[in-house]
Amino acid sequence: MDFFVHLAEGFIGMFQEGGKTFVGLVTGIIPTLICLITAVNAFIKFVGEERIERFAAKCTGNIILRYTIFPILSMFFLTNPMAYTFGKFLPEHQKPAFYDSAVSFCHPITGLFPHANASELFVYMGIATGITQLGLSLGPLAIRYFLVAIVVILIRGIVTEYITKMMMKRREAQAAA
Q: TM spans, by residue (predicted)?
């Protein structure tokens, strides 16, 4: 009989914990996301979408800025997952590379700017806990994590753009044949 009581309590306990997690999301990250989305949309309306597109065109005209500054700005201002919407300012052949760069920057930015990807802060905090237990400072770790990520997202962006162009040319050649 005790087995069935524990089984029933465990079964309903699982849903109670799910409910607590859901309430935590509803009272925590969802209002933050709604406020952020509203603020970004208001900013775009105040500044003007044409000006934003011109700035994006200038920023993405150079391949180095396109896969370093542009993903950093998008992740910092829009945070994850809204940051990927910055891809709408790019031509089709550059969108996969931008996404690859931006998504690769989700975790490294949390060391310096935890708001950018608050839902996955646990990745950085796991590493940071080990560093603090060793009695070391977190500042150098966060800065190194950030700087190495800039190099990594640049490489990923360039390689992904090259692969995307190659695949698009191959598809066009197959369609023409």
A: 22-44, 64-84, 142-163
